[in-house]
Amino acid sequence: MSEKVNELKLKLLEDKTTSGFWLYVMTDCILFASLFATYVVLHGNIAGGPSGSDIFQLPIVLTETFILLTSSFACGIALLAMKQGKTKQMLGWLATTYLLGVAFLTIELTEFSGLIGEGHGWQQSAFLSAFFTLVGTHGAHIFVGLLWLLTLGLVFFKRGMSEKLKRQFILFGLFWHFLDVIWIFIFTVVYLMGVA
């Protein structure tokens, strides 16, 4: 009888965790929708400073996009390997996901520091303020995702795989794919439309 009670408790906890995750994703959608709306309204307010076509370097942004999409592909392959019980492959693909995420974030921070070094910081115009806020918020999410993945990896090495950890890896994968979708919108709305 106590086994059934424990199974029921675990199921309720799983449902709460999954529901909480989707609630978080919905609030993040609202956050990013607000940031996109703000950017669209303010992108033409350059206050005599540079516009997107003056400062955006599309080849670098294309490289960023390729890196992030590849990291999402690697994450998907890792989750498939996990479901098939191929732990070594899973770890290899998760390590690839992590390293590509670090590369993406490094390029983004380099872009930010280059713009600030040229005197094009967030305080120069409403356009740059909206740009740094939107793209920086996405970058902060990437950073949190990297910490989450690192934590899951440490838990795996300390305790081994469990059903709970599998579920957490799946939720991480959904989060990582969500960040890819947001980046596609950033790439289109901010960068492609910005250089047009």
Provide structural commentary.
- With 196 residues, the chain is mainly alpha-helical.
- It is 86% helix and 0% strand.
- The protein contains 6 helices and no strands.
- The protein has helices spanning 2-42, 52-55, 58-83, 87-117, 126-159, 163-195.
- α5 (126-159) packs antiparallel against α6 (163-195).
- The radius of gyration is 20 Å and the shape is elongated.
- The model has no long low-confidence stretch (mean pLDDT 94).
Would you count the extended β strands for me?
0
Which oligomerization state do the chains in this entry correspond to?
single chain
Cα distance spanning the termini = 66 Å
Q: State the helix count.
A: 6
The class by helix and strand makeup works out as mainly alpha
The description of the largest β-sheet is: none
Low-confidence blocks of residues: none
Task: Describe this protein with a few key phrases.
196 residues, mainly alpha, 86% helix, elongated
Task: Summarize the helices and strands and which ones pair or pack.
Elements: H1 2-42, H2 52-55, H3 58-83, H4 87-117, H5 126-159, H6 163-195
Helix pairs in contact: 1-5, 1-6, 3-4, 3-6, 4-5, 5-6
Short description:
With 196 residues, the chain is mainly alpha-helical. Helices cover 86% and strands 0% of the residues. It has helices at 2-42, 52-55, 58-83, 87-117, 126-159, 163-195.
